Amino acid sequence: MRFMSLIRVNENGAPEGGPSPRMMEEMGKLLDEITKAGVMLDTAGLGRPEETVRVRSEHGKLTVTDGPFAESKEFIGGYAIMQTKSKEEAVEWAKRFAAVHDEGWDITCEVRQVEEPPAG
Amino acid sequence: MDADDDTTGPAAPPPEATDAPSATVAAIEAVWRIEAARLIAGLARLTHDVGLAEELAQDALVAALEQWPRTGVPDRPGAWLTTTARRRAVDRFRRERTYARKLEALAHELPAGAPGADDLARLDEDPIEDDVLRLVFTACHPVLSTEARVALTLRLLGGLRTDEIARAFLVPEATVAQRIVRAKKTLAKAGVPFEVPQGPERAERLASVLGVIYLIFNEGYAATAGDDWMRPALCEDASRLARLLAALMPDEPEAHGLAALLEIQASRAAARTGPSGEPVLLADQDRRRWDPLLIRRGFAALAHAEAAGKAAGAAPGPYTLQAAIAACHARARTARETDWRAIVRLYDALALRAPSPVVALNRAVALGMADGPAAGLAAVDELSGEPSLQGYHLLPTVRGDLLARLGRYEEARAEFAHAATLTRNARERELLRSRAADPRGGVAGTAGGGTTGGGGAAAHTGR
């Protein structure tokens, strides 16, 4: 089974200086562990949220809007695609990922199953 | 114990649990999957006994199943399990020491190798990954039967329950349980040291490890018996083990080679069966259904294998060569664009490294694509007397395929009909029967009958 963890960051919960050295180290260790466990298929952080471009199709009307977006309270900071035995396992890894964040952070890992094409 | 009881029946949930117990049990199982290998590996170093280590780990799991539904899953569940298991280990040593002292009075000696405080201290110093690697090599020790190696590897490294292993291999649970018990006894009796072998033994032992993981993958990829064409969960277990091994042995080219091979083969999973579950041969697969993420991972692992091989000054090993062949297929946007010459060359190299009639058969298939069916048929016919291929359904399948491409349909029909009597896979048998009924046509339900010539590619590793 495959799951994607979308990491949503609350804009008030992302410290100015970025992650602390401690958090970076812990995060590195954890990512290494998930990779070595053969679970992590792909992961990446995303670029600056204010440079987001939104391409929208709204009932047939196409609009393209450049960021920043004053109304958004959170942005997607990155993602991880994991292969696990169960949803609970993916959630457990996401918990560990969330847990390495320092107090100043407010992030949400949204764990969703990746639909895999059925055979045939 | 069977942690799955809670999800399958009303009997198991602990009565005192206030939250949804099956959810907690599922969460505990998830923790187990993640922690089992490291937990058992650390305990095996402590106890010098893989069997005992597994029992202690299981005890800790049982304790978690008793406590966590009430208390909730702890923040650091892995640490909880480790502490609990170690405590039990220490209790056991104490009992055994007391016992040993009593023995000593009789025999005037302490048992050699009895672990103590030093081992506990050392446990925190050495990286746990080294222990996991030792566990891999122990579970795949040649002193064990192949079935035992597979069962033990899935159990100790994959965190699978006995009933899950039994289901995957279509054998009774008691058989698997027995296999595991016997395997643990065999390891203890043979005094297999808990280590990664060095020196001359190393190559043979590594070959066993790679072979076990590959076998698990193949068991899932093409069930040798029964009606299921695939048991994808086993493939994922094997891929996971291969990635783990490659991560633990970054300088070992073949560990990356195996990982690459499995990633690329798994990338074809969705394309390998048709709408009614029938197998679709490589040449007929809808390549848009191949998984690009796994292909990309496979290419990356193959690049690692080749780089590690160069660094070691070693010629590519069998898994790396097979991965390179699989990569040739993955690179071709259509079957027609396949670089069959490159594949023939790779099979030549493989035949030098790991000669076998099956490799020769696959080489014949590739040759049939590179130089035409007559050349392929000539190569196949050189193998017809090969004793180990007698009764192997892919020999007549390949021969039938080449004959059909040469327009010799009656002979092709006979070959397919013969092949159908040899395969143990029900789906494959159906496919072969339909080809026997209509040797001119391709695989039922797939387009482009004219390209089924590559169908003989079913023979090679990249089915």
Automatic annotation (TrEMBL), chain A:
Residues in the signal sequence: none
Domain of life per record: Bacteria
| UniProt xrefs under SUPFAM superfamilies | Dimeric alpha+beta barrel
Domain spans labelled YCII-related:
1-102
Q: What Gene3D superfamilies has UniProt attached to this entry?
A: Dimeric alpha+beta barrel
Family, similarity comment: Belongs to the YciI family.
Q: Which PANTHER family match?
A: BLL0086 PROTEIN, BLL7171 PROTEIN-RELATED
What name appears for this protein in its UniProt entry? YciI family protein
Originating organism: Streptantibioticus parmotrematis
From TrEMBL, chain B:
Return the Pfam families for the record: DUF6596, Sigma70_r2, Sigma70_r4_2
For the DUF6596 domain, which residue ranges apply? 205-305
Pinpoint the RNA polymerase sigma factor 70 region 4 type domain residues. 137-187
Occurrences of domain RNA polymerase sigma-70 region (ranges): 39-97
Q: Where is the composition biased (Gly residues)?
A: 442-457
Query: What keyword terms does UniProt attach to this protein?
Result: Sigma factor, Transcription, Transcription regulation
Q: Where is this region: Disordered?
A: 1-22, 433-463
Gene3D superfamilies registered for this protein in UniProt: 1.10.1740.10, Winged helix-like DNA-binding domain superfamily/Winged helix DNA-binding domain
Family classification: Belongs to the sigma-70 factor family. ECF subfamily.
Q: Which PANTHER family match?
A: BLL0085 PROTEIN, BLL6612 PROTEIN-RELATED
Q: What is the name of this protein?
A: Sigma-70 family RNA polymerase sigma factor
Q: Organism source for this protein?
A: Streptantibioticus parmotrematis
